[in-house]
Every structure is written in C-alpha cells, then in structure tokens.
Specification:
Rossmann fold, seven-stranded mixed sheet, binds adenosine-5'-monophosphate-propyl ester, GMP Synthetase, Chain A, domain 3, about 625 residues, about 30% helix, eight-stranded mixed sheet, about 25% strand, alpha/beta
C-alpha cells in the first residue's frame, strides 16, 4: 500500500491513524517510494521535544534539486516546469521546460561555484518575481549553499540586518523590479544595505528594468555574461538529510527577526506530500500560487512542492490590480490554471471591486482554490467560493506557518467536506492539541485554546539561525514538550479546527506577519518619540491594521502633528518596509502599565478595536487614569 496519495475520506482516516500509531513506518514508506536518495536513513525520526531537537531521515543523503529537476528529465524533459507571467501582460509569458530549468540551474550553480560559493555558505537573494529568482534558489540548493531569500519589499536596513544575522557572503539582486506601474530600485536598496554588511564580498545583478545603476568595482557583476560563459551541466552536491536548505526570516513578537532554518530531507518530503494531497495535484495541472517567493508560501508552493511533483507552476511578477482588477482572473484564463492559491487580503480587496471584473471570465479550468496566511472571514470565503470557484471548486483554507515548512491543517480537495472559515482537519502526521492557560490539554470538541502540536513532523524548522536557545524558548517552553504555534484555535463538534488568530504580539497585516516590537523600536528612534505601543485592529481589507500609541518627548515642541505622523511612518518604512506602516497614530501622555512596568496591551487592543466594555480590573494599574484619556482621544 502506498501512502503518498489519499483518495477518499475513509482513506484519509486510515492514513491519519497509521501516521499517528506508526509515524516511522508511515513517513519512511513515503520517503522511500517517492524520492531519489544517494543513501537511505538509519532512523526515520529522532527527537526530543523538550530540548527542541528534531531530526528526520537521520544520516540519509540526498539533493533536493535532483528530486525537483533531474529525475523528471527522462520522462518529461519537455514539459513546462515554470510559466513566467510578467508584470505587464503585453510582454510575452515564458514557458520554461524541465530540460531548460536543468540547464539554467546548472549554469547558475556553476557561476556560484566559480564565484567561490560552496556548501554551507549563505547567499542572500533579493530579487523580484522573475525566473532568475527560482533559478538562484535552486542553484543554491544544487551546490549546498544555504539560500536566504529576502522579500524585495523590505527596506535597506531590514535587508542588512538579515544579511548580517546569517553572515551572507553574496547577494543576488537585479537592476530593479516592476510592481504595477511602478519600478523599484532594488540595486539602490542593496547598495545602501551593503554599507553595513562586512561579510558580503560579491553581488550578482540580473537585468530586468534596464535602469541605470551603479556597479561597484570588485564587488558587483552582471549575471548574464557570467551565465553565458557557464556550462549547462552540473553535479549536485551530496547533502546530509539534516544539512540546512535555507534560512527564512519571520517576525517575532520580540527582538530581531528570527532566521528559521529548514533542513533538506524532511522539508522535501513534507512539501511534496502536502502539495500533492491538499491541492489534489494531477499530472496535467497548472498550479498558480500568487505569493512571493520571499515568503514561505512561495518557497513551498511555488517552487519546491510543485517541482518535486513534476508540476507546472506559475511565477507571477505582477499585482492583482494591474493593469486592472481582472488581472488574476485573466491570467487564470490565459494559462488555464487548475489550482489557484492566494491570500484572504487579496480576495477581500478584489471582492470590493465591480463583479464584472471576475464575471468576464468563465474560469472553467479551475478545479481547486486555496487560501493562506490569515483567517478567511465568512464573507470573503463565500465570495471566493461563488465567484471564483463557481461553487464547483473546493476552497482549501490552509493553516500553517514559516516554521512548519508546509501545510498543517487543511481540507484535502475533493475529499474533506469544507466549512467556511474552518481549516478543518490536520494532515496525516500532524497532532494538534488545544491547551488551556494552566498548560493542560483540553480534550473533547466545541472547545478553544492555544494551538500546539505534540509530535514532530518532517517539515518543522529545526532551529533559529545562530540562536537555538531562542528557538527553544519561543516554541517549546510555553507548553513543555509541545510545539507552540502562537495561534489560538477552536475545535467544533466534529473535530474541525478554526484558527482564531495570534495569541502573542504578532499582528498579521495583509497576510504579512509583523512583530510589534521591531516596529515600536523603529518608532522610538524618531527624535520626538519617548515611547510607543503598537496593536492590531480589524480592517476590512487587510484583515488587521496597525494602531500606534505614541508618547512624545516634549509634546509642546512638535505642533505639526500631521507632519510628525508622516515622519514616524517614514521611519517605520525605512527600518522595516512600507508593509509595516501604521494606519492610525494616537499621541498619548502615558500608556497603561502594570506595577512591574509591563504595558497592558490587552487594554490598548480593546480601545483600538473600539470595544470599551470590560477592560478588566484596571485598579491594579500603575496609572489607571490614563485609560480614560486614551479612550477620549481615540482615532476613529
Ligand atoms: O496566525 C497564523 C496565520 O499566519 C501565521 C503564520 O504566518 P507566516 O509564518 O508568515 O506564514 C504564512 C503562510 C503560511 C499563523 O501563525 N495563518 C496562516 N494561515 C492561516 C492563518 N490563520 C488562519 N487561517 C489560515 N489559513
């Protein structure tokens, strides 16, 4: 019996039970039958959750690009691996076959080797959504270099801190990027970032916009001539199962971003398996995930998951509103997309526009539509189901995280009955539990609590780059012996899960994970600011938006508050990126604090949400009178 593909609900329960009772047999068989290995494992899994130590396929040897590319060549070398849909729809789309992908990745791998990059070196990739991005990622994996893709919307200082944290040797970037009718000066941002990055010795620059840029002698080189000279054949590095494949930064509720480390074999097995089952992938499907490869969704479900299955995956450079609001639907029609995977924030934004944008297109090719990144509200779910899926396509609401590597809780298309706003059931191998405040597991159904996972799965991140203690503290200490997700969830009467949102100080804005602490740090660097506190509040399109309470140093001096708000947001934009800008800023003379000096964010959150009922016992605050002042000054 093969476990790789689930064909019915009954089989799902069978596989699920098997995966819990005999996880080693279950994953061992999947790994053995569906991938090529240089050497098999001694043990399927070895772990100690209390110490945050997890290893899968111990001592196995493998290269993920052999599995993404080489093994497909004999039978489907001419099949399209990647469809590149450019920002401007009048520019021709590119179809890159598996053969061509092999050649392009090989050339790039050879360029990297010639430039002195070898196994274990970190390479920062800061590129727009162009084929070079996919090729660079895969070329790193080919030679065992650890890729650290940084979303090309992050500011220079955000890129610099990520480069420095993982001590990258090289940056791969482009002369610029397109975003709707704007062009972005990516190379300029990298130049600024590299003023403060001593470990970077070389920069490779892809051409995209033909913008005039400065090239620093001895450091910067154009990529194209190097590729032209490179040979189109390459040997894949033999990687240990637990060698790091990549680092991807995600915001934490405190401190600097966390460089989540994913390793080779477990991530490979898990992304391939989840892609196949959640989206019910079949041989001739055309899969389109609209995320950016700079986020985990793009890593796992634009690149690795689809390519491991020999699928055709779409890389979309543009945005949903350019040239108009029918761009997604037009593109689905153009490439006959069968599975479409996007974020609730995009669905909400498009649902606000005239229905004719979507109704113009029959969208008959679609089979499955997916959602990821934040809770999908009932209205958005129905709009998506009715107008995009034509009530025929299952909506797979997929819950997972940068840390989990792949999808954890989701309906399996055509198998699990869906329920609006519910991510439904855990995938095989995933053992979710809900915990109460006293750290007890909550049994039974119709309950809610903090969502933890009590057994390791192959895709779990293994550590935070350079800081294992932080990894342990963040994920394995709140509920000892269990992985704590940071999310709250409820379980309904049949055992379906609904994710209710973060229970920590991370706010999900337009599907982007933003830690409040780094934003507060950025605001506090403004010379007029003494202290600040950021909370999230509900927003129609973004899901959540940011509300900042700011105490000024000398309030009298800065009379032009409008200007100050602009400056504060500019600081946030410069330090983190435009995605972290605040929607509302309220100047206050104090923040509600406990006697030990801790800001009572619960109260601030309620005020920002406009809920003035039941602040709890505020008499224990150091400064209870401030609550009234803040309520009166609330920005609406
Ligand atoms: O709060 C959950 C939310 O996004 C967080 C993870 O964010 P990130 O690491 O950026 O990864 C996003 C893409 C996988 C989670 O802790 N989240 C993600 N998917 C869902 C979700 N919340 C509700 N429903 C989802 N389907």
């Amino acid at each position: 019996m093969s476990y790789f593909k689930i064909d019915s609900l009954e089989q799902y329960f069978k596989h699920y039970n098997k995966s819990i009772r005999e996880p080693r047999k279950f994953w061992g068989k999947i790994a053995e039958e569906n991938f090529t290995w240089y050497q098999y494992w001694d043990k399927v899994v070895d772990f100690n959750m209390a110490d945050a130590e997890v290893k899968w396929f111990v001592d196995a040897k493998v290269n993920i690009t052999k599995n993404c590319i080489d093994r497909h060549l004999a039978k489907k070398g001419e099949k399209t691996a990647i469809i590149f849909e450019p920002n401007d729809p009048s520019e021709e789309a590119l179809h890159i076959s598996y053969n061509e992908l092999y050649e392009r990745v090989s050339k790039m791998a050879n360029v990297l080797r010639e430039q002195g990059i070898s196994k274990g070196d970190r390479v920062c990739i800061y590129l727009p959504m162009i084929p070079e991005l996919a090729v660079s990622v895969l070329a790193c994996a080919r030679i065992g270099a650890i890729h650290s893709v940084v979303f090309a919307g992050f500011s220079a200082s955000a890129v610099a801190s990520r480069i420095n944290d993982s001590e990258c040797k090289m940056v791969i970037t482009s002369d610029g990027g397109y975003r709707g009718n704007k062009t972005i000066d990516l190379k300029g941002i990298i130049d600024d970032a590299l003023e403060n990055c001593p470990t970077v010795t070389s920069v490779l620059v892809a051409k995209r916009t033909n913008a005039e840029i400065k090239m620093k002698a001895g450091r910067d080189q154009w990529l194209a001539p190097l590729l032209d000279k490179a040979i189109n054949n390459s040997v894949a590095e033999i990687m240990d199962a637990e060698d790091p494949l990549f680092i991807l930064y995600t915001s934490g509720s405190t401190g600097k971003p966390k460089g989540m480390v994913h390793t080779t074999a477990g991530y490979m097995v898990y992304t391939a398996y989840t892609f196949k089952n959640v989206f019910n992938y079949e041989e001739n499907d055309i899969f389109w995930c609209t995320a950016d490869i700079g986020w985990i969704t793009g890593h796992s479900y634009i690149l690795y998951g689809p390519l491991l299955n020999g699928a055709t995956t779409v890389i979309f450079e543009g945005i949903p509103s350019y040239p108009d609001f029918s761009r997604f639907w037009e593109t689905i029609e153009k490439h006959k997309v069968t599975q479409f995977y996007t974020a609730p924030t995009a669905i909400r934004a498009l649902a606000k526009e005239n229905l004719s944008y979507v109704q113009k297109f029959p969208l008959k090719s679609l089979k499955v539509i997916g959602s990821v990144g934040e809770p999908i509200n009932e209205e958005a779910w129905h709009w998506y189901n009715d107008h995009v899926g034509g009530k025929r396509c299952p909506v797979v609401d997929t819950w997972w995280q940068t840390e989990t590597g792949g999808i954890m809780i989701a309906p399996l298309a055509f198998i699990t009955p869906t329920k609006p706003t519910y991510a439904t059931l855990p995938l095989p191998g995933i053992q979710p539990v809900l915990m109460d405040d006293k750290r007890n597991e909550i049994e039974g159904n119709q309950v809610d609590g903090s969502l933890c996972i009590k057994f390791p799965w192959p895709g779990i991140a293994r550590t935070i780059w350079g800081d294992h203690q932080r990894y342990k503290d963040t994920y394995f200490s709140a509920f000892p012996g269990k992985y704590f997700t940071g999310d709250g969830a409820l379980r309904d009467e049949v055992g379906y899960y609904r994710i209710t949102g973060r229970v920590d100080d991370v706010v999900i804005v337009s599907g982007h994970n933003l830690g409040t602490a780094p934003i507060e740090d950025a605001i506090n660097e403004h010379p007029a600011v003494a202290e600040s506190a950021i909370v999230g509040f509900p927003h129609d399109i973004k899901g959540n938006a940011l509300y900042g309470y700011v105490i000024l140093k000398e309030s009298g001096e800065y009379r032009d508050r409008d200007n100050l708000i602009k400056e504060i947001n500019q600081h946030v934009s410069d330090h983190i990126g435009p995605i972290a800008k605040l929607d509302k800023i309220q100047f206050v003379t104090g923040l509600p604090k406990t006697r030990s000096g801790k800001i009572m964010r619960r109260i601030l959150r309620k005020i920002a949400e406009g809920d003035y009922s039941n602040f709890g016992d505020i008499t224990t605050l150091l400064n209870p009178e401030i609550v009234d002042e803040i309520v009166k000054g609330k920005i609406v």
